[in-house]
Amino acid sequence: MTDRRTFIRGAAAATLLRPGLAAAHVEAEPVVPTYDVPDEHLPQRVSIEHLDLRPDEIHVYPWEFALYWTLPDGQAIRYTVGVGRPGLYEEGEFYVGMKRRFPRWTPTPGMLRREPEVYEQYRDGVPGGLENPLGARALYLFQPGRGDTLLRIHGTHLPETLARAVSNGCARLINDQIVDFYDRVPIGTRVVLHPQPENFGLY
Q1: According to CATH, what is the number of the domain 4-193?
Q2: Which of 41, 154, 157, 194 is an active site residue?
Q3: Per residue in 13-47, pLDDT tens?
Q4: 170 is catalytic
Q5: Catalytic status, residue 59
Q6: 40, 71, 93, 198: which is deepest, by most CB within 10 A?
Q7: Number of neighbours of residue 98 by Cβ within 10 angstroms
């Protein structure tokens, strides 16, 4: 059985060596380190036959702090994620409308309204980088008729925020894992954010 640390490091190496990546991008972008996380927070290939999900979809189960990238034959890659705080998590069906490497981050109007003392200083945005709130990669969630929902699946350099309900609504993976995940997911992919239990986070 493949060691899970070997799995993620091998996947990251394959990404870096993939042909067609523009040399200018390689030189300009920061090198994404491998973060030290507990074994249970490493990506795992798992059976999801009991869930009866179609392949090539993204499913987030907030009470598990789990994101599943579904594969054929009832299999999936399970990533540990941080999710939205109670009251900020938005369930529903979405699709990946846009993808960005080292994206620029700008606080949403909701963030500025709820916590101006935190976010006002960033009103004009933060350049992309490893410590940017969106991390190394971001997938932008859209809905038909609504467009960009402002929800993201993105990276983070803060491993302590995994398996916690801490965000303003987005799902976050540690940076080296979002790099692996990002390369698997095409534009247009269906995304399901499953409901959050009523008492979620009240502990």
Answers
A1: 2.40.440.10
A2: 154
A3: 444 334 444 444 445 689 999 999 999 999 999 99
A4: yes
A5: no
A6: 71
A7: 13
